[in-house]
Design a protein that fits this description.
single chain, 189 residues, 5% strand, mainly alpha
Length: 189
């Protein structure tokens, strides 16, 4: 006979986030931030058309549009990291930016991280190499800002909540205790 099988912990909370999670979060963020930027340009065009009667067309080649887009990306990432330590894409994938020691990152670290993030790209992507080769999986911008990216969700706790909900639904309805008496048969007063 075999004894009880020990339950293996499946939590990822506090572990350094991997390259795939970080890349997917960045992809989600680029889609979301680009869509918001495009909607903002469309709204501006609409308002200008209504107010002045002239149509405005935005071109990706226009330097003003490029500068506005870059400024918007700095604002999107910098504000998100400074305020909550995560962007929308990071929240979807359950990852968060923290200080290198694991404590909550101060807002200035989020701003610094967003300002030096382009360095990782401009160095032909070599700034991201640390995510693949370091134990802490920190990119160049993480090293400069003194941050790390970790998983914030606890898979084990989520699984236990799911199992508890499932057990509640599968349990037969509670019957009245014989000691409590039959509530329906009790006379009304």
């Amino acid at each position: 006979m075999s004894g009880p099988v020990p339950v293996r912990s499946v939590t990822a909370q506090g572990n350094y986030a991997g390259s795939v999670s970080r890349f997917l979060a960045y992809g989600i963020d680029l889609l979301v931030s680009s869509a918001v930027f495009a909607l903002a340009l469309a709204a501006i065009s609409y308002v200008v058309d209504i107010v002045t009667g002239k149509q405005v067309h935005w071109d990706r080649q226009d330097i003003a549009v490029v500068i506005a887009y870059v400024a918007w990306e700095f604002l999107y990432f910098g504000y998100s990291w400074a305020v909550s330590g995560r962007t929308l894409g990071m929240a979807v994938l359950g990852i968060r930016v923290v200080r290198a020691d694991g404590a909550v990152a101060e807002p200035r670290r989020g701003v610094i991280r967003s300002l030096v993030f382009p360095l990782s790209i401009l160095l032909l992507g070599l700034g991201f190499l640390g995510i693949l080769v370091q134990r802490e999986r920190r990119a160049l911008h993480d090293l400069i800002a003194g941050t790390a990216v970790i998983y914030e969700w606890d898979a084990r706790a989520a699984r236990l909540r799911f199992l508890a909900r499932e057990a509640e639904m599968a349990a037969p309805p509670a019957t009245a205790s014989p000691l409590a008496g039959d509530a329906e048969a009790a006379p009304e007063r």
